[in-house]
Amino acid sequence: MRYLSVSLVRNNDRGECSIKLALAQTVTHPSSAAMLFFASVGALALSTLAWAYPNPGAVSGDTNVADPTLCKDSAGTYFLFSTAPGIQIRTSTDRTNWKLVGTVWTVGKEPAGTVSFTGDASANLWAPDCTYKDGEFYLYYAASTFGTQNSGIFFAKSKTGLPGSWTDMGLVTSTKSGDNFNAIDPNLLIDGSTWRMSLGSFFGGIKGVTLSSSTGKLASSSVTSLAQRGGSDAIEGSVVFKSGSYYYLFASWDKCCDGLSSTYSIHVGRSKSATGPFVDKAGVSLTNGGGTVVLETHGSIVGPGGQDLMTDNDGVVIVYHYYTSTASKLGINLVDFSSGWPVLK
User: Fold this and answer.
1) Quick one: how many helices (H) and strands (E) in the chain?
2) Please, what are the domains in the chain?
3) What are residue 124's phi and psi, to 5 degrees?
4) CA angle, 242 as apex, 331 and 204 as ends, to 5°?
5) Tell me: the pLDDT tens digits for 116-139?
6) How open is the CA angle 329-13-293, to the nearest 5 degrees?
7) DSSP conformational letter for 83
8) Where in the sequence numbering do the catalytic residues fall?
9) How much is the pTM?
């Protein structure tokens, strides 16, 4: 009989491997030991693939979240905001144990402007993005209806980040059916004196706009294309993050919010400019479907995405959600940029 040779091939510096299969020499009477050996090698190859990505770091407390964003105030308290009616707020003193302390807006009394996009004052407000700067929290978030471009991005501020402390700063931008992007999933990058926002989901991909640092609103009507996949254009949840001399554009690909059937994964490209062009490790432009995988389903971690990044005392932190058999859970890892590309630890 002919037997199958199984070997592992290291694909990249993240330790990802693939299985190389080849037909080898003829064996007339393979022993049971030989058959067991080849079965063991195959099993080892498959298990090694599952180790290509680290599991989320340990967390405890209330950690059922979607689309998390992370901030840290001047006293060292961590704030985690997430998609929910009113936008949920969690706090932690150690980035591990989390307590749900309330919502940005009282459920049922969300800002009046959001209702024209959600149709309901108790609806989910989506994918908040938090920045803490000069003693103040800046929070951008989206109001929309699933599967449509009837969407608006809103802005709020707070001195404490706690429930009851937020001031509604109003609408930043909006879209309607037929526009070339979808006004959800905002992310603020403060780059020196320049404020930039990436945004978008399906419907034309990820776009970039410039904000006024004094108002937090649009500084101009100019819109730049940052990433696009074509086809269904299943890309959203962008984050532009600067490390060293590069700007990195992270985005979530494919299907969110479907429990264990979710196919979300996190991809990245980089550029010397905050406005692109961003390319992946193979040199493919993100506006032409490029994107290097940073994190995807592995083992019991299903559909990771909805990410945000923040610099902390121990390094760069990424937060995201993933699915288990019961809920959408908080994932937290450190990120190593020393190779020039992000690697989760």
Assistant:
1) 2, 24
2) 2-50 (no CATH), 61-344 (2.115.10.20)
3) -60, 135
4) 75
5) 999 999 999 999 999 999 999 999
6) 45
7) S
8) 67, 236
9) 0.87
